[in-house]
Design goal:
mainly alpha; about 75% helix; elongated
Length: about 100
Amino acid sequence: MINAFANTHLALMMQGNNALITDLVDHFVGNTPALIHHLEKALVARDFQAIFGISERLNSSFRLMNVTEGMELLGALNTDAIRGMSKEDCADVSDRLLRFVAAFE
């Protein structure tokens, strides 16, 4: 579990305002999993327009929370990589992204 209040990035960004940090984490944890599930469905369907739109939104959230591993995973989702993914690979991407979010719970 990530202690959001001890997270230097969040503390600096929110200027030590614990209420803002709490709101940010609550929003991240409450809304990001639904986007990840939509991403998985888009990956399986090979809906590239949806994939890249959802990826941008997720990347923005992960950037805000300073989750570099999530940004790297999303950055690796290029067209060729996606075409070579099995349904299990799509689920694995989703599971990994969900674990990054769960670390803030």
